[in-house]
Amino acid sequence: MSSKIVVGIDGSPGSDRALEAAIDVAKRYDASMVLCHVVERIAAKGDMAPLHADEPEVKAAVEKQAADLRDQGIDTEVRSESVVLGGPARSLADVAGETGADLIVVGTRGHSALAGVILGSVTQKLLHLATCPVLCVPSPRDN
């Protein structure tokens, strides 16, 4: 049986910390990884712009992280999903189901803190939607 870990990646310090935890689990259990980046879009006529202006940089960083993991011998793929505001949790749960993941790893605070205040925590929603265990990694605290 091969283990698979889906990691929610959004370019935030919290998701970087979640990735570190996921790498540790992957190495311990010889698991493959799916780095899942969900692009939140603002509903608009015509082309829907991303919520975050730095989206191209985040995507490039995710691809680099995946390449670095492959160099370390961890089988890693990247999935990029696109949703209108409020949908990252559903996308992460769907990717986990589609890939047969044994675990989802996410940070507790991410890139879309404002949306979290208005619409609720992505991690909180994910805990209700996922059909596999979810490892929630707290963000680093400022000292």
Task: Walk me through what this model shows.
With 143 residues, this protein is α/β, with parallel strands linked by helices. It has one domain: Rossmann fold. The protein has helices spanning 13-29, 55-71, 88-99, 113-119, 122-129; strands spanning 4-8, 32-41, 76-84, 103-107, 134-137. The chain has a 5-stranded parallel beta sheet, with helices on both faces.
Kindly name the structural category: alpha/beta
How far is the N terminus from the C terminus?
A: 42 Å
Helical content band: 40-55%
Strand content: 15-25%
CATH homologous superfamily title: HUPs
Determine Rg (CA atoms, Å): 14 Å
Oligomerization: single chain
Order of the strands making up the biggest sheet: 3-2-1-4-5
Question: Quick one: overall form?
Answer: globular
Number of helices: 5
CATH class: Alpha Beta
**CATH architecture annotation:** 3-Layer(aba) Sandwich
Show unreliable segments: none
Largest sheet: 5 strands, parallel
State mean pLDDT (0 to 100 scale).
82
